[in-house]
Write a structure and sequence with these properties.
Layout (H helix, E strand, L loop, with lengths): L2 H16 L2 H11 L16 H12 L5 E6 L6 E6 L6 H24 L6 H10 L5 H7 L3 E5 L2 H11 L3 H11 L8 H5 L20 H4 L15 H19 L2 H10 L1 H11 L4 H7 L7 H18 L1 H5 L10 E5 L6 H8 L3 H7 L5 H4 L10 E5 L7 H7 L11 E6 L6 H8 L3 H7 L13 E8 L4 H6 L24 E3 L6 H8 L3 H8 L12 E3 L9 H4 E10 L2 E8 L10 H7 L1 H10 L11 H7 L25 E3 L6 H8 L3 H8 L12 E3 L7 H20 L2 E10 L6 H7 L5 H7 L13 E9 L6
Antiparallel strand pairs: 1-2, 1-3, 4-5, 6-7, 8-9, 10-11, 12-13, 14-15
Helix pairs in contact: 1-2, 3-7, 3-15, 4-5, 4-6, 8-11, 11-12, 12-13, 12-15, 27-32, 30-31, 30-32
Length: 767
């Protein structure tokens, strides 16, 4: 890095943690991971042919043209195909397929030839030079790829970039990131802040929902991925995180596409962090064309961004967006803001792209604390002045309470719209989706019509709700409702007793029903239930959290019963909602590779806003590798237990103890290697269940928390994983492990440096 800012950030974190100069000096030493080289973003000569290919894609051919080329050797471009702008995608695809077959036949013919070649075959043979052995040409016949041109889109991106380049430069400079990273949106979105990809990424920086929620507000009212300013700040955090985990900028940039864990796996497999070695030699099912080409396509974009006139002639970039911001004092309807600000809705909407359709339709309010963007040349606004201009009946304590419909298996948007007497378009817009979207069972759709919330004044005047204590009752959970999976609150019920009746924890009920105050439930309230936890035998009941903790000055162990797993009681419904976009991404990447080659601008926009083939796997900042090793073992990750492994494998925990020679009650430790039994399920099934568990675990946490930075902590004598998480706002162990994947927390000696994410608690999504 430009190690200056990582050093600066670390030293600031140290001075806060310790408050004495020596800490700052040590921080400068331990945080300076970047090499002393002048260029943190090298352009290796071995990759120059790839960079030149992408420069041609960015500048030479438009979305009405494309290259037919070799998948691996990008210097081999067989032909430039041109399409009539009026031609349909189907007609274009036929042309591409016919050309692909023609060149494949030619390559096979050339590989088998023993005599002189025709002029056309000789031209094709000459493209390969010394590399064109018969064996290589036969292989090449099966790896012909089409790349749609991007010159028109890249030029448009250069013009658009002027709106935000100053903010990007300032944000990256404050974080100490290399200034060159500001060119990354060319590859991600062509600087289109409203871009959506086929796998669910959105905005200027193309964040997936699961990744974005680590740093941004994403709920039913706000999606900060669509805000170029907020998303830039999140991208800076993610890039800095990738660099800390991987140690070089080429790998950190590639991880933006392939994920931190994927690049750590590549480093380990190749035994090096050299980008040339990894790009040329690393083989993985998920490390395909897009991942191999992400860094070189970025270098090409950087070259064009630095020298736009060389490739496009005179370019006049758009003027910088200027504005003022005012923090909202309460939840406010957009119509009230129009009146108070004396501003039309179109102006507000253009300046605040993160506010979603339900806000503009009045179904949701602009939330409290939201930094509303206003024209820079208008009257000066403050939170106090805005509150004075708004009437007492326009300041609300919460959003309107919407009506919901939980999607059942097989239901369509059309059926649900018909059932409630609304139009498909209205229902789709209200939920931020398309009318032809596929619905997943368990998703909650917001319905038109809602309950008006209390105003701020009314909420302040009301006395605090008194906890309702239970009186003796013999009503069972089954008797309380005729609807399976629902409990209707009766007079005298308490949340604790309801949880006990239905076999759930209080936290599960709170999460499932979006209740913030456990003492405030009311008679007749309908509580949604998840499946009750099944009983376990004594042998399988005791599972062990993945660390030892000091208790009363002694080393002890946390034992967790099977009914209170280490996931903290994550609701299945919440996991389904929060990982829905990731699930769609997984489905999308399983399509045949040839379907991932867009032949038109519209297809390119839908699939991946600039790079073309998109991603082979949904990128995630999670640095932990959940794959099974070749010998059938895994490394224990935080928040995992033998009970989890047994469940995912379809066997009993006692079988795993037997396989691993573990005595009953022996703890699992972070980093411990465990042998698995795949007699009931395949490795791929186990891996997917394991990843889905962690996706749900993280989705639940980031529904109410945001990462706002990081600092460095140096372990003292007596420190353990538990003491560190308690010292820093009770951080979840899995998050600390993600930030420190190479730290041995079972042997935390004094002086061990630990990067600690700074997390703030926020309102639950949708609240």
């Amino acid at each position: 890095m430009n190690s200056t800012s990582v050093r600066g950030e670390c030293s600031r974190g140290w001075s806060r943690a310790f408050g004495f100069p020596l800490a700052c000096l040590l921080a400068l030493f331990v945080c300076a991971r970047a090499p002393a080289a002048d260029d943190p973003l090298p352009r290796p000569p071995e990759l120059e042919r790839d960079v030149q290919f992408w420069i041609r894609v960015w500048t030479e051919i438009t979305t009405n043209e494309g290259f037919l080329h070799d998948d691996r050797n990008l210097a081999v471009v067989y032909e430039k195909l041109r399409f009539d702008p009026k031609m349909s995608p189907r007609e274009r695809q036929k042309i591409v397929d016919a050309a692909r077959e023609r060149y494949a036949a030619a390559l096979r013919r050339i590989a088998a030839a023993t005599g002189p070649l025709s002029p056309e075959d000789q031209r094709i043979r000459d493209l390969w030079g010394e590399e064109g052995t018969p064996a290589r040409l036969r292989e090449a016949a099966g790896s012909i790829r089409f790349q749609l041109g991007q010159a028109d889109r890249f030029r448009e991106g250069l013009v658009r970039s002027g709106k935000w380049e100053a903010h990007i430069a300032e944000t990256f400079a404050n974080m100490g990131l290399p200034a060159e990273l500001a060119a990354l949106p060319h590859v991600e979105s062509s600087f289109n802040p409203s871009a959506y990809s086929k796998v669910g990424a959105a905005g200027l920086w193309q964040f997936m929902r699961s990744t974005g929620r680590r740093y941004l507000r994403i709920d039913s009212a706000v999606d900060d991925r669509l805000d170029p300013f907020r998303s830039t700040e999140a991208a800076a955090q993610l890039l800095a995180y990738n660099y800390r985990i991987l140690g070089t900028w080429p790998l950190a940039i590639t991880a933006y596409n392939h994920g931190a864990a994927g690049m750590r796996r590549a480093k380990e497999a190749m035994g090096t962090d050299d980008i040339v070695t990894i790009v040329r030699k690393y083989k993985s099912r998920t490390f395909g064309f897009a991942s191999r080409n992400f860094y070189v396509s970025f270098l090409a974009a950087l070259e064009v961004d630095r020298n736009p006139e060389k490739y496009f002639g005179p370019i006049e970039r758009a003027s910088e967006v200027r504005f003022q911001e005012v923090e909202l004092p309460a939840y406010v309807p957009v119509a009230a803001l129009e009146r108070a600000l004396e501003m039309d809705r179109d102006t507000l909407r253009s300046l605040n792209p993160a506010l979603l359709p339900p806000v503009w339709s009045g179904q949701r309010y602009v939330p409290k604390g939201y930094r509303l963007r206003l024209p820079a040349d208008g009257p000066r606004w403050t939170t106090e002045r805005l509150a004075q201009r708004l009437g007492p009946n326009e300041l609300y304590a919460s959003h309107p309470v919407p009506s919901y419909h939980r999607v059942r298996r097989g239901e369509t948007l059309s059926e649900i719209a018909q059932r409630y007497g609304v139009s498909m378009r209205e229902l789709a817009e209200l939920n931020g989706m398309k009318v032809n979207s596929t619905l997943h069972a368990g998703r909650e759709l917001v319905l038109p019509g809602s309950t008006t919330p209390r105003t701020v004044a009314a909420a302040a005047a009301e006395p605090a709700p008194r906890p309702v204590r239970a009186v003796a009752t013999t009503v069972s959970a089954a008797e309380s409702t005729d609807t399976p999976g629902v409990y209707i609150v009766r007079r005298g019920d308490s949340l604790w007793e309801i949880a006990r009746k239905v076999g759930l924890s209080e936290s599960q009920l709170l999460e499932l029903n979006r209740i913030r105050n456990p003492d405030f439930i009311y008679e007749g309230q309908r509580l949604v239930l998840s499946a009750p936890a099944s009983d376990t035998s004594e042998e399988e009941e005791v599972e062990v959290i993945t660390e030892t903790v000091p208790r009363g000055g002694r080393r002890g162990r946390w034992h967790v019963p099977g009914s209170a797993r280490a996931d903290g009681g994550i609701s299945v419904a919440m996991a389904q909602r929060e990982s829905e976009e990731d699930a769609a991404a997984v489905a999308a990447i399983r399509e045949p590779a040839e379907q991932a080659e867009p032949v038109s601008a519209a297809e390119a926009e839908a699939l991946s806003p600039a790079l073309g083939p998109g991603v082979e796997t949904p990128p995630s900042p999670d640095s932990i590798d959940y794959a099974v090793a070749d010998d059938g073992t895994i490394v224990v990750a935080a928040a995992e237990t033998l009970g989890h492994y047994a469940e995912w494998l379809g066997i009993r925990a006692s079988r795993l103890r037997q396989v691993n020679g573990m005595t009953y009650g022996r703890p699992l430790l972070l980093g411990q290697r465990i042998k698995l039994d795949f007699s009931k399920v395949s490795r791929s099934t186990f891996e997917e269940r394991r990843r889905e568990y962690h996706r749900a675990l993280q989705a639940s946490y980031f529904a109410t928390h945001r990462i706002v930075g990081s600092e460095v902590y140096i372990a003292r004598r007596g420190d353990s994983l538990w003491t560190v998480t308690q010292r820093f706002s009770r951080l979840p162990v899995w998050l600390l492990q993600q930030y420190n994947p190479d730290v041995n927390f079972n042997d935390m000696r004094p002086g061990t440096q630990i990067v600690v994410p700074k997390v703030e608690e926020v309102a639950a999504a949708g609240g």
